[in-house]
Design a protein that fits this description.
By secondary structure, the chain is an all-alpha fold. The chain has three domains: 106 residues; 37 residues; 45 residues. Helices cover 80% and strands 0% of the residues. Helix 1 packs antiparallel against helix 2.
Amino acid sequence: MNLFFGGKKKEAAAPPKPKVNLGSEAADTIKKLRGDITALEKRRKYMDVQVTELDETVREKVRKKDKNGAKMALLRKQALVKNAGQIDNQILTLENQCMQLENATTNMTAVKAMESGLNMQKKIAKEMNADKVETLFDELAEQNEFSNEVSDLFAQNAEQIGGDMDVDEELDQLSAQLLQEDLLNTQAVPAGGQPSRAPAAAAPSAAPAQEAKPSASALAADEEAQLAELQAQLNFA
């Protein structure tokens, strides 16, 4: 029959078990241990009350000469005291276990944090290995070299433009032109500010010499002012 119907069907694979969160599970365990310790402590306090009551009962029975009653109460008291000692040991054991579990949880958290940090360092190392860093520095050096070459070309071009223009020669020509214009203006207008007139026939020959002195002084002052203004313009430019 298996030959006709394809054989036995394969059993379905069991679903994967959900991943257990150890941190959460450890926290739940610690919480349960704390609850058990609290319950034992309450039980221990109640036993202390019972021991105190039995102690009073024993004393009362002894006063009443009830030997059997005192004996029974004393046996119950001793049993409670023994049980109380056992509960003390249980509380101590649970507290120690809880402390150890808390330490283990803390260690696990620290180890996971270290593992996470290590994985991140590995990822960063893959993205930033020595070869990539070396290539990056090489590319930066090439770009810096290219930028320096461009800057040098601009500087050379500026030097060529400045070399073609003889500033000193142009300045000398401008100064000579201004000096010539000032001489013409001085000859056209006397120092007194009146328009020039034709010299009288009877005028003494010393008069032109007297008028030339203030004209030379004014010319020098005007020339210095023009040169100072021109120098200021050149410096500003």
